[in-house]
Fold this sequence. Notes:
The structure is a homodimer.
Chain A: H1 14-24, E1 34-40, H2 45-56, E2 68-75, E3 83-90, E4 95-101, H3 111-123, H4 125-133, E5 141-148, E6 162-169, E7 182-189, E8 195-200, H5 224-227, E9 245-247, E10 255-257, E11 260-263, E12 266-273, E13 277-285, E14 288-302, E15 314-316, H6 317-321, H7 330-333, E16 339-348, E17 354-376, E18 381-398, E19 401-410, E20 415-423, E21 428-429, E22 441-445, E23 448-451, E24 453-463, E25 471-479, E26 495-501, E27 506-508, E28 517-526, E29 533-539, H8 553-558, E30 565-569, H9 591-600, E31 612-622, E32 632-644, H10 660-663, E33 666-667, H11 670-674
Amino acid sequence: MAAAPHHPFDPLTPDEISRASKVVRPHFGGQDPNFRVVTLLEPAKKQMIPYLEKEQKKQPLGHVPTRYARVEVAVPGAKSGNELFELVVDLDKDKVARKQHMKGKHSYIDADYMKAVENACLANEEVQAEIRTLELPANSMVVVEPWAYATDGMNDMTERVTMCWFYLRLLESSDANYYAYPLDVCAEVSEALQVTKVYRLPTKPHERINHEKKPFDRRRIHSTAASEYHPDLRPAPRATTKPYQVVQPEGPSFKIQGNHLSWEKWTFRVGFNYREGLTLHDVRYDGRSLFYRLSLGEMFVPYGDPRAPYPRKAAFDLGNDGAGINANNLQLGCDCLGTIKYFDAYHNTPSGEPLKLPNVVCCHEQDDGILWKHTNFRTQNPVVTRSRILVLQTIITVSNYEYIFAWHFGQDASISYEVRATGILSTVPSDIDVKERIPYGTVVAPGVLAPYHQHLFSLRIDPAIDGHANSLVVEESKPLPMDDPLVHNPFGVGYVTESHIVEEEGGFDLDFTKNRTFKFVNENKTNPITGTPVGFKLMPFYSQKLLSHPESFHAKRSEFGEHAVWVTRHEDHDHFPAGKYTMQSSGGDGLASAIEKRRKTGTAQSIRNQDLVIWHTFGSTHNPRIEDWPVMPNEKLMVGLKPVNFFTGNPALDVAVSTQDKNKSVLYNEEESKNSSCCSSRL
Amino acid sequence: MAAAPHHPFDPLTPDEISRASKVVRPHFGGQDPNFRVVTLLEPAKKQMIPYLEKEQKKQPLGHVPTRYARVEVAVPGAKSGNELFELVVDLDKDKVARKQHMKGKHSYIDADYMKAVENACLANEEVQAEIRTLELPANSMVVVEPWAYATDGMNDMTERVTMCWFYLRLLESSDANYYAYPLDVCAEVSEALQVTKVYRLPTKPHERINHEKKPFDRRRIHSTAASEYHPDLRPAPRATTKPYQVVQPEGPSFKIQGNHLSWEKWTFRVGFNYREGLTLHDVRYDGRSLFYRLSLGEMFVPYGDPRAPYPRKAAFDLGNDGAGINANNLQLGCDCLGTIKYFDAYHNTPSGEPLKLPNVVCCHEQDDGILWKHTNFRTQNPVVTRSRILVLQTIITVSNYEYIFAWHFGQDASISYEVRATGILSTVPSDIDVKERIPYGTVVAPGVLAPYHQHLFSLRIDPAIDGHANSLVVEESKPLPMDDPLVHNPFGVGYVTESHIVEEEGGFDLDFTKNRTFKFVNENKTNPITGTPVGFKLMPFYSQKLLSHPESFHAKRSEFGEHAVWVTRHEDHDHFPAGKYTMQSSGGDGLASAIEKRRKTGTAQSIRNQDLVIWHTFGSTHNPRIEDWPVMPNEKLMVGLKPVNFFTGNPALDVAVSTQDKNKSVLYNEEESKNSSCCSSRL
């Protein structure tokens, strides 16, 4: 990211990060603040709208919005071990503009603190005594995996409480898959790093917390070929896959300047922050405004095992962990194929210094098969174009799981958001004989249960369809009656579309049986050909809502899992559908509560022909299969956004036809391949 | 396709086609039979099962099933112009084994006959008189597009009746997009090529058949940039898309011998016929049987405009046209990228000679992003593998529309079936002023309406999950109650899966709100780790059912659009969910009727732990958008099949990790790209 001059949407530069913490530090007297967050406070939309318009028209920009940093600091407190403060720093004046004590709120997971929890846990005498009863094999190592405590009402959440799950590493390698050997020991650690509870986990179908202290069952030890994923610990891989390379002899079609990206009539700005990871801003096609901001708002992974203490497993991977902080360094991995542009990002160290996150976003093109084709059957002349897409991808690792998030841009002005779940299933110990079954999960190895869980994502879509006054239209396709004398449909084949415009904030469900389609339109701009408002439609991903009971903490804390499509009035910084602080939250901070509060207090505004925001909840009810073990082949979830009567025709009509001269495909020759030489005859 | 020796699943060779028609010809005395079909009659499953087993075990094959051809012949008849006969020819003995007069049935569309219809129509005096009233521009040309008559109960369907839709070609080029200028003249042509009716089409919202004879409105003539798709008729294309090539320096990973394909533990046989196009047989992974046969069973495209005569627009593109016959020659088009294997096929001429259909299937690999990844956060060591998929693709052109059908095979033993709709919307003339709206379509140009319609596909899945005795399981994910004293779920987070096994043939609907999952399992084979029956699950495509009224001919003729998932007992040659003869059908031949008949006559058999077949109906309610005009950017529909507790772990665990050495990605350098030279620094 360029040092300066920067765009108002650009993340803070390393220098700004240092300056912000320097400005903040004196506000904490003698204390040594733990800088949890030093990030850009995005400028108010009211200021950005005129700015972006001038920018688009290449006019003088005039007043540049004040540059602000948002800083979160944790300091030891009088009453609790960890007090959280939020400050806003004016970086133009190097001054604190606002300081607030976030009483009762917790910062996201502190990795250093979690390391200390692990150590405290393992060093604890009661824990060690418990481990001894396991009679573990020599040369094995106990691994403690600390997790945020998902509120269950059983504990005071004022201070941090950490759940410690125990695993066993049988092999010497640090990359051995310890999730293959979950132990039935569990511990809880307090804010002050005291181990407050040690107990045995339930391992039978209907068992409450278990007090039996059985030793580790050696019969559970299975072959490394079955339980390891690291190539050094496994048999040799298959050797049948021949190399596949992508070559762009004239380079890629994108142009990137700093965080500004232009590609095939698309332009937008790439943002990044510790929590949301990749964000996209001012997304336009052919200069026309489409989306002000696109981001993943939150994701929630609640487990469906009702046996205590498993209800404490429910992760807000953005709010608790941070999709930016946990983004993989893509350079090392060979995660992207072709001609790759990498974006770095910056987070901060606990002392407020810039911390580089290299290669957290990769950007590249990809061929996506045929874009459009027609052959006039009378002439037999085919015309075919291939679909080139632009991919922006990040990958996060959150303990055992990985999630790959990719934005795909099409030449036809369509956008896709693809989530892939991979990584390792969370496992718990089980002790059942052949005839028993634990109904809350799948046995993936002897003594190992992979519990049922859900993945729920909230995609935040801030449309700006040809401007900021948009409306949400819900359209359905309905058959005409066959026997109604007032309706001419004697053959019973007719159907029409019925639309209604949403007036108020709220949540909606999907219904494919009615072809229910959600469109964001600009009622002030009519398409000159179709005579209908210009718009974009959502291509949702159909998935089950949150299964947890509405009165459960899972439901109360997440909220967004209650409906598939939410619409709210735009508010600056309102980016988080489960609330700003999810760690040990008790609920009441999410979309549904905000909407309800506005209704009750009479502050709700119409969302018709206004600045609105859409939140699409989608995900998967993940009942593990053995094929997901020991590491899961990707499960794909895709959401799309497509123009509907926005343009005056196919926006990709001007894509050049596909030719062999450009594509240089190679004809496979059976005879040649039998002789083991490559197929070299080009078409 | 190899001449000989052939596999029982191999399509007929050119020689066999000649021989079959030679054997048949004498059976029609002095008449000159029009050979409509000369195709393989696939051997009975009862015979193939032991054959395939021996083949798989590399044992002597013993008895090879008799080689049969199925021949359909049309001859002029006494009562009607066109009598259809079906014969079965024993190719081992060169004898007719069976001959049947298919009374009242019509063969699929005869392209030569349709050409004759066009000519008869244009030559007809009444038609010419009607055209004159249009006062068409000089140098324009009327184009007649004949369509099969979709039964509407208004005509005797004993003989062929053809609907003629009229369009205007304004430009001289034969590739001009005449769909841009639909005319309101319509004609019907009889079996004997007589024009029986000429009239004007409805062009107003509530108009019945129109008798006003308005001239062609010159104001409708729009720019070629808006209405043409052929590059020779349009402005220069965008020049921003840089080349993207796929290189496989060691060739592809597949091995092909004749029609047998092996790739990354997959093996299967490629079949092809005039009607279904591409069929896949004996699909196995790592030698284990998965699917006996995979194919597209039918597709139905009914239009939703109730104004007569538009209810006659409803195309069975397989049964009426033939996905094999209309498959594109892929070599010419640059339809496939990379190292490509093409398969040819053979149809027959009207005189029964072999007719080569070159390059109707292309086969190649594709990179599909990351397959699986995990980074141990403690060591920061990432392990990532990329997903290589195998693609088998065909494309059909059916008048204005194109459909791209692609099978994708994954290294994780998953299969996807992807349909892309592209080509040109069907158009009808409209004559509305700015304030009027025709509620049955979208205006895509002045005077041009693209009517609402549906695309409904039926994917026929013949599972053979570790053998032929399979069951259909319907599983749902259900929350446990929070307040039931008998159920331990105090935190309200628990959920379980509930399954029931289907005993009888029938149709089922999708329900994502319950995470309803359809699995094909083998109850006789228990997974040694999970303790559950081995199986595969369907990843359906959620779409609206057929909108036409159940009493409409559209519904009665298609039947399969009534439910999303059908299950029937396997019967040889039972491949067509809307019946074997769809041309001018009246209904009663589809899945629902067959199931009902078996129930009523007491011949229904259990489908539990039996040889069953699944039919997945999916599609799209297509309410055109202007972006679909003049040629549609692809609309994708994807269905998946994935193993569920079939293997003992991730079947792609042994895929080699992704490395830069193999992948040779290129780092994009902003500075270099500014200097317009390619990015050459490799990672």
